[in-house]
């Protein structure tokens, strides 16, 4: 357990009291000294409202300096902090627990007017208490609340430059103006936001949102981008380029990018794309830098290498070590359980490891390659057919930009493979040839029964490809 409890390093950084800008919102600039005073006042208001160790604080906040201060203040008083996503059902919201204090933008504005109580602002979280609940995207089922303790958050690397892995140290030099949008309570936005502050940069509120205009408008040097938005950005820059000369880093979030599309993004946007891999349960697992991808085709086809503090274990179906198989991960800052969900917890959090449910392999240089999802299977004649290998074969064809595979019930085979393909610019894929490529590599059972062309893949609220929507298309 580190000597400091989260978020003490952030409080210490803000307590320097200097005039460095840490948050910019249009014409408004908030300095470290101003942000620290804001955190102090909101923390005083939270304590007066009964918030403290073991008490839940739910966040429904936009992107403002007050929202950022409220998040840090809630952690500072030792509360259990959870963001409320718009797509969470009433049942999921009810799982968070009784007696939570709800903070929306109006309530935070009221708290910001609380007089400073003069008490020392020292992180009050108890190591074994749950510090935050982060909801998974639900891309493989119902969203689950990942419960992360104060001990785990205190072990994270983001606020500590001496803990940064090499890829993060490279990224940190590019975070002078980090563009934030959506919700600052999201895992990715907050983590890179803290990294930005530790690197001496400024959080810049995106007003209004929209790639690529907001990058140029705010002279942003860095931001997070989903795979779908990255593809659209590359397309837009080819068709109607805008000035992105300020851009130094785009961190791809949500799902891996096909090697061909990564190469295209690096060619069109320059050496600014960082591909990372992580899960809500674990935080970042691996990352690969633009320099690595430009230097090595193997790196381009991977999701990067893990930091020294992260352990990877690849296992076969019987739990034995394997060269290819299911990936198990252990990180210092991983979640401890799913909140109020013991059944799901038992299946994923195993003997200190997190089952990722992803199929993977490590190459000779330590780069991790993802091969598909354990649950992303089609059962053809009682045999498991994995979608990932089929998608990779289809996407490797020069006429194909993206490929997605789903299964649907079939009267003869039980289930059948159906593929959706986004054609590469200027190409018309040949369905017969694509099907033959799959048969040659994987056998007849893996051959798509149908291959349909789509302009773009539908995405869910998290920005990840929504295969359930594709499966519905198969029926229409």
TrEMBL record:
Residues 19-93, 121-339 form the AMP-dependent synthetase/ligase domain. It comes from the Bacteria. InterPro entries: AMP-bd_C, AMP-bd_C_sf, AMP-binding_CS, AMP-dep_synth/lig_dom, ANL_N_sf, ATP-dep_AMP-bd_enzyme. SUPFAM superfamilies: Acetyl-CoA synthetase-like. GO terms for molecular function: ligase activity. Pfam families: AMP-binding, AMP-binding_C. Signal peptide: none annotated. Keywords: Ligase. Residues 390-464 form the AMP-binding enzyme C-terminal domain. This is Acyl-CoA synthetase (AMP-forming)/AMP-acid ligase II. It comes from Micromonospora echinospora (Micromonospora purpurea).
